[in-house]
């Protein structure tokens, strides 16, 4: 049986191991959290190099992509330095294929949708998702400056966001790990930038950022996210969320991160390297990888 392992800087409380089927082939997928211990994560990569079919890199990106250019995150790359045999998948491939097509792929479950305003707390590492969201929304607000850097300025629209990103990404490339890894579990609650949550009917992006900053009530809203546990879904239900769309499939109540799913597809393909976007798009169709729609009901 092929094996894909996501080694994450995140919380070990979110660990999960499950056998999934892709194209009729069983793949063991495992998520191992290191609770922010970069040294332990690095040792795990070195110990398992060549012993598993693909690595997921969790909790941090290795590169950030803007259009056709990729910007290396140097501190993150040091984490996996010396890994030479097992392909490294940080999820950026699926963020620009699977997440870019999220509304297309869940259309049979969701139908046609349109939103008044979307709020993406952090879009720099999920530009594919942000672009997908912009296409189904009258207006999109990106909170990167607020949420990631503490600068209280929202960014409106994808063109303005790209202009900002072209200036910021060469700087972000040199950020230390303390600025790239944003916490081990996101359990801390600090409602912030509430007016952007409250004025938007669609909230999209990384769940841990949402959990940290979202208000007590999210009544009637649609949330697009991933890396959710059953407890995370229940939290959103209690806050009054109407619909949750996970960009990756749910297995035994858990949707894994894009890094884990990209590693699973890489293991399945068996090419011994990261897959290109067109290869990932082909596999998405071949094995039927789709996000899922969870309808929650009304206010509690």
Count of DSSP-assigned helices: 14
Gross geometry: globular
Q: What is the N-to-C order of secondary-structure elements (H for helix, E for strand)?
A: EEEHEEEHEHHHEHEHEHHHEHEHEEEHHE
Number of strands: 16
- Give the neighbour order of strands across the main sheet: 10-9-8-11-12-13-16
CATH topology of the largest domain: Rossmann fold
Structure description:
This protein has 300 residues and is α/β, with parallel strands linked by helices. The protein has 2 domains: 121 residues; 149 residues, Rossmann fold. The chain is 36% helix and 24% strand. It has 14 helices and 16 strands. Strands 10-9-8-11-12-13-16 form a 7-stranded mixed beta sheet, with helices on one face. Strand 8, helix 6 and strand 9 form a beta-alpha-beta unit. The longest helix has 15 residues. The mean pLDDT is 94.
What are the SSEs and their pairings?
Layout: E1 2-8, E2 16-22, E3 25-33, H1 38-48, E4 54-58, E5 63-66, E6 69-72, H2 74-79, E7 88-89, H3 92-95, H4 102-105, H5 107-110, E8 115-120, H6 127-135, E9 137-142, H7 144-149, E10 155-156, H8 158-172, H9 177-180, H10 194-198, E11 202-204, H11 207-213, E12 222-225, H12 230-238, E13 243-246, E14 250-251, E15 254-255, H13 258-269, H14 277-287, E16 292-295
Parallel strand pairs: 1-3, 1-4, 4-7, 8-9, 8-11, 11-12, 12-13
Antiparallel strand pairs: 2-3, 5-6, 9-10, 13-16, 14-15
